[in-house]
Amino acid sequence: MSCIRQKLQVRGFSPETIKIIESSWRSGTKSQYQSVARKWFEFCNLHNCDYVTAPVSIALDFLSDLFASGLSYSYINTARSCLSSLLLYEDSSVPFGQLPLVKRFMKGIFELRSSFPRYTISWSISTVFDFIRATPLYTLSLKDLSYRVAFLLSLLSGQRCQTITSLSLDNMIKSDDKFIFLITEKLKHTRTGVHQSPLEFQAYPYDSNICIVSHLQKYLEMTSELRNSSQQLLISFIKPHRPVSRETVSQWIKNFMSLAGIDTSKYKSHSTRGASASYLVSKHFDVKDIMSSDGWSKEETFRRFYNFE
Prior knowledge:
There is one protein chain. The protein is mostly helical. The chain has 2 domains: 2-112, DNA polymerase, domain 1 (Orthogonal Bundle); 125-305, hpI Integrase, Chain A (Orthogonal Bundle). Helix content is 52%, strand content 4%. It has helices at residues 2-10, 15-22, 27-46, 56-68, 73-86, 100-112, 125-134, 142-157, 161-166, 212-223, 246-259, 271-282, 287-294, 299-305; strands at 172-175, 178-181, 199-202. Strands 1-2-3 form a 3-stranded antiparallel β-sheet. 28% of the residues are buried. Mean pLDDT is 82; it is low at 305-309.
């Protein structure tokens, strides 16, 4: 976002103000926008126009070029969002991406190159639990236990890998039949006035092999001497047992799914969210409660991409 910084400096904004404005873009958003911004700068140089004040017609021509090159609706929609951040129109109170003509343009892109959900059906939760029951908890290695704990946390909470990675012993409340994790980090769905509520995992007393509390107790026991002062819940099972990244948690979940017989060429780790939500809907849980717990803000998005019932 260095181009935005330069333009704001020219317009006389103070370094403190610029720093706050730049902080409105999270690191993940900046990373996502990077390739789009590079293409936009090249396009503007080719057409001899300013990349911050280019007219709407030029910006739409840029999106048209992306479409002509075969890029997906999702990518072009990301480009639209990126341009909304880059283009500064002082005479308009409406950002580029929300201009009526731009919204009409994106509707045309959708009609010509529609974007559909990755999944239309989910894998069977009962099949996975049958696999878990077949291997008693007390026989698991730390590696297999790590895979299983990551999977169960993701499935039972309906959360993204980012949330699972953020779970911490410092913010854990433990009892004999319950684990509660307070979430103190900003997440993808965190926004003004909305933050993830605590994650509560209840014991399942009828079968310890599928009980998340039993798994967490065993995991904490096996990792207690390996942590090297790390307070992140999930740590590597390989020396030096450092806290694991979001990508590692995703891979653990995917590895477990593969072991359980799920086709991971089709279903990725993120599919646990849809499987969890669909199961709860089938059991007649209230959709708004599911959305609130799992971090969805729009019911339309939930029903289109995550509810397969």
